[in-house]
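Records of this kind hold a single protein each, on a pair of labelled lines. Below, a sample record shows both lines together.
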Amino acid sequence: MSDDGTPPLGAAVHDGGSGRVGLVMGHEGPYLQLRPLGGGREWDADPARLRPLGPAELLSARVADANARSRTGLGLGDIRGSPDTDRAEDRGQ
């Protein structure tokens, strides 16, 4: 945390207002802009509702994000034998 109690740029925090975890990307007026750990659209957060993540919480949040991305099928199209490329029509059936 900085001298004024706000987390520094790049810090991983939990937003108590939204229940989400994000990285501090900047500030606009009284709010901080947070971005999801895996990237995506930023949101405004009240600095008073933020708390820094500990190492175990950060690891857990990153694993949850990786698991969520793996369930969407992102990146599977280029992997031979993946569910996206191993369809019946591709096998001539």
About this structure: The beta strands are 12-15, 20-28, 31-36, 43-45, 50-52.
